[in-house]
Structures are given as structure tokens and as C-alpha cells.
Specification:
The protein is an alpha+beta fold. The protein contains seven helices and eight strands; from the N terminus they run ββββββαβαβααααα. One of its GO terms (molecular function) is protein-lysine N-methyltransferase activity.
Length: 234
Amino acid sequence: MTRQNNIQLEDTATTAFIPLWDMCNHEHGKITTDYNKELNRGECYALRDFQPGEQIFIFYGARTNADLFLHNGFVYPQNQHDSLSIALGVSSSDRLREAKLGLLAKLGLAGVTHYNLYKNSNPISAELLAFIRIFNMNEEELSKWSNQSMPSDLVSSDESCSASVGLPIDRKAYSYLLTRCELVKASYKDSGSEDVSLHRKNIKLLKQCEVQILDNAIEYLRNVLEKLPAAEKS
């Protein structure tokens, strides 16, 4: 599967092996390979200047480390496109389940069961932010947002949108996700170092990369909660 490449033959897409090009390893960059219809050939341009005798790398694409490991057999710790998928959903026993699913449906998220945490400075995807806000709404809040034709503010972390969503919702939402991330992190076990096979080393490295994403998300969520204005006393 790692050596099947899409090419064009007589205007028909197919897969094939590409000698020499298939030998290039991966590094961060951009896609520099394409098919030239006029010359009827695949073309690959250098990512950067390579010195004589230096290994030539290509960019495999914006894939997570889990995808690189599954499809290509390696883990890339410097992967700027890495993310971690976490499973979240509305329980069938939740008395507000239908209202929550209805609001999620307005944002195209009714059937989504996994949400991404990213490696960058803002690790929470727009879809995940919307979910945790909706998941933590009470009946009155759900009714208010459900009456809007397109509740787009729920997917944004901009200050103006956060003000529209409301402090109580955001405080509950970010606290919920912080707890969830801490629980997921706690589920990771040290695989040990007895097995020194390449496969086991990659598994251990993949887990380390995923824990780093969780650590980054936990730090981000704690900072967000610290910056939220204190709840007003009644």
C-alpha cells in the first residue's frame, strides 16, 4: 500500500510503482510532485537545495503520525501536521440528548464521533470547541442557541464570539475538556524497553508524540481557564 502511487495513463487514473522516486524518505515541506499531462510524465521538484552526497527527501503529505505509522511504517517526531483523535459523544441516557444532537446537526456535527486535538498553539479544533460547548449547555441555553438559524459563534474562540457564547458555558466546556484530556493521558501505559524491534520502537515513539499533544492541550486549557473572568457572586 505504501508504494501505490496515483498516475495518469491515457487520461485514466491508476496506481503504479515509480522506481527511484519510491526510495525517497519523508521530511516536512510541501507536495512537489505532480503529473505533467503535456509531457505524459510524473515530475518531482526538490523541496530545497540538497548538497552532493546528501539524501534527497520528499514530503509525503499532511498526515498525522498515526497515519504515517499505519500506511508508511514510521513515526516523524517533527511532524507539524500531527493531531490526536479523541472519542466524544452524547450519552443515550442524557435527558437533553435530542436537543444537543439537534444543535450539533445545525453545525454538521450530528454524526461526528471523534474530534481532533492539534499539535500547534491552539490545539482545539473548531468542531471540538462547538461540541464541548453544546455538550455542557443546560436546557435554557440549548433552547436559545437552537432558535438561531446558524449558531456559528459556537465554533469560534474569538473574544467577541466567546462573549456571545457566555462565560458559564465556556468555563464548563473548557473544564470538561481538561478533565477528559487528563483522563486520556492517564490511560497511556509505558510500553517498556525490553522489545527493541523497530516496530515496538515506533509504537513507543507514537505514544510519546500523542502524550505531547495531550500535554500541550492540558497546558493550553489551564491557561484559558485562568484567563477567564471570575464567576460573579450572587
